[in-house]
Amino acid sequence: MTGYDLQYDRACGALTGMAIGDAMGMPSQTLSRAEIQQHYGTISTFVAPFPDHPVSHGLTAAQVTDDTEQAMLLATRLIRDGGTLDEAQWARDLLGWEADVRARGLRDLLGPSSKAALDAILAGASTSETGRNGTTNGAAMRIAPMGISARTDPLPDFLDRVELACRMTHNTGEAIAAAAAVAAVVSCGIEGQSFDTAVISALQAAAEGQKRGFPVGERDMAQKISAALAAADTGTAVAEFANKIGTSVASHESVAAAFGVVRLAGCDPWKAAVIAANIGDDTDTIGAIAGAMAGACVGRSGIGPKATGPVLAANDLPVDRIARELLQLRASHDHRVADGAECGP
What we know:
Number of helices: 18
Order of helices and strands: HHHHHHHHHHHHHHHHHH
Shape: globular
Distance between the termini: 36 Å
Number of strands: 0
Helix content: 55-70%
């Protein structure tokens, strides 16, 4: 496999793995493990949500949620802006996405803090202020395209890009560190690294990303991720792991949990999706983040057709085109860095 072929396989793997994890977790999102058992037993394949699900009502088996849709939206914005990010346009993109969700009669809308931040931006508020309390996983769940489009080296430049994608709604050390860690794994995976090797860069990105934004929320995301990986290494049961690490929408719980899920699954995107779907609470986001990281580290060639087929059939996801265009940004970014035009401070 040539260098580009490997990158292309890994980029497609990240986007496809994200969608698989998201779709598997869709019917169980917001539910406790006991409620998942009550409604579905053990989720081992794509299933439809039960009637009048509080969030997933209106979706069918193998459909994705806001995680994948917003990630693809970010990818499209990055491509249109040539690898940078026009924050006003990005705000309009997200508000337009929510309007479309409402028009489809679905319930998976922007969170109240994100909606308030975006409305404030369009009313003239500074993007450096609107996300000062955002510590949830909304930034990390959609950051995978950034990891595809840029290398982690030089790290300050990489973190500048991650911070820009976060700050409108999640301008806190916790959220930026979490998103930086996820993006770093994806970026390193694109370069051909294994998950275990990529984690080294992810922890460094989290530690440095923690210094960005407002000091709100968890003060050491790198430690939370390390703790989740250590818990997974003990071979603990999924329920015990979930109780110890947490699976809520808080970045320090769900993003850390996603790292542990990848380790528990042996970096198999399908196994990670199954674990996430049954883990409870923010299952779709944990699945999407874990799937993106695992997929970036094994490639689409490492994901079986029983996982990819139903998701691609149930959703309009231009994975191949988006992967190619994000990799074009990555190549352009590499040239600019080599020329000294984009070195971080």
